[in-house]
């Protein structure tokens, strides 16, 4: 579960996922979203128009750590301790009753919007479990590093079902993202909604692929990156093979140019500005969200190596719009697709 860019490096170690479900009853999504507290809720236009059904029977599934999760009925009051899974829940039209780091989510994730008044249970790394259980969840979704995960162990002692998930799989980043979304859909009885959203994602990707194919690009080589400032120095994190945003670029017909070492789970590398010389003529894309911890882009723009890179000189270095979460679900991935297309096909 990568943190915000400045403290992300050491944060990559994770695992796998999925299975079954039962009976269906027609349940139109209420105006304030399906499941969870309706107080102060706000929902997307997509959810307002949603007419998919919500299952009502018992739920039996296996989480990403291979643990059985048995529910008498689909979860309605769900607490979530990671942003990708929070986004997924909202895309499924389920309003969470508690979330870790509401302010951080609202800064880094714009694909979905949390209802006003959603209970904040502290940081993703050190959640306030008393506040979490005061929200009376019938399921807690966590991102765990393994069966010995400390927070998972603490949660299991409380007796409320826990769905343990992993944030990434470099072997198949898009497949993992979609499987995680489907898994949360099963747990909440929203499988039909999950299938509809994933169908929209596939259609979005196919249409974008045609647009990029029709564009007369000077090169299809590309690197997506983010970065942070530490002790006055800029550190960069290129997304290599196995990263979600790299895989999305590849699906659009682009060619990854970062060949340096990456971590085995998220596909993320590390370099300084000089290290980007190795990517040659590649198009450059980077995170446009303002990190409260420091503006690495402003520092880059003062750097002669950065300003002399071919992509920067040719106007082929582009910031993505603010608030596109690089470790998100289908809706964040659609935002990334649009950002790639808009920059690559601009006159």
Automatic annotation (TrEMBL):
It comes from the Bacteria. Residues 77-347 form the Fe/B12 periplasmic-binding domain. Its main location: other. Residues 1-22 form the signal peptide. Residues 33-46 have a biased composition (Low complexity). Residues 30-66 are annotated as: Disordered. GO terms for cellular component: outer membrane-bounded periplasmic space. It is found in: Cell envelope. Keywords: Signal, Transport. GO terms for biological process: iron coordination entity transport. Belongs to the bacterial solute-binding protein 8 family. This is Fe3+-hydroxamate ABC transporter. It comes from Brachybacterium ginsengisoli.
């Amino acid at each position: 579960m990568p943190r915000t860019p400045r403290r992300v490096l050491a944060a990559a170690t994770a695992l796998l996922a999925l299975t079954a479900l039962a009976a269906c009853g027609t349940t139109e999504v209420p105006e304030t979203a399906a499941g969870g507290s309706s107080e102060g809720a706000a929902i997307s236009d997509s959810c307002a128009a949603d007419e998919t059904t919500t299952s009502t029977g018992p739920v039996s599934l296996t989480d990403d750590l291979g643990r059985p999760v048995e529910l008498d009925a689909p979860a309605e009051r769900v607490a979530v301790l990671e942003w990708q899974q929070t986004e997924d829940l909202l895309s499924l039209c389920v309003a969470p009753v508690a979330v870790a780091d509401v302010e951080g989510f609202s800064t880094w994730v714009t694909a979905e919007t949390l209802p006003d008044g959603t209970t904040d249970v502290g940081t993703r790394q050190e959640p306030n479990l008393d506040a979490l259980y005061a929200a009376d969840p019938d399921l807690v979704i966590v991102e765990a590093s393994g069966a010995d995960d400390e927070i998972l162990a603490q949660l299991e002692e409380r007796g409320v079902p826990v769905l343990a998930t992993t944030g990434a799989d470099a072997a198949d980043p898009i497949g993992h993202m979609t499987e995680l979304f489907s898994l949360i859909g099963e747990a909440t009885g929203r499988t039909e909604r999950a299938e509809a959203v994933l169908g929209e994602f596939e259609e979005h990707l196919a249409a974008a692929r045609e647009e990029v194919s029709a564009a007369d690009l000077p090169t299809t080589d590309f690197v997506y990156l983010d970065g942070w400032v530490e002790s006055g120095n800029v550190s960069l994190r290129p997304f290599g093979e196995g990263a979600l945003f790299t895989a999305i670029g590849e699906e659009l017909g682009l060619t990854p140019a970062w060949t340096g070492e990456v971590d085995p789970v998220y596909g993320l590398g590390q370099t300084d500005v000089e290290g980007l010389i190795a990517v040659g003529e590649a198009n450059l894309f980077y995170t446009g969200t303002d990190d409260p911890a420091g503006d690495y882009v402003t520092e880059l723009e003062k750097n002669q190596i950065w300003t002399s890179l071919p992509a920067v000189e040719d106007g082929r270095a582009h910031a993505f719009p603010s608030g596109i979460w690089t470790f998100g679900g289908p809706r964040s991935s659609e935002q990334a697709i649009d950002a790639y297309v808009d920059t690559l096909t601009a006159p």
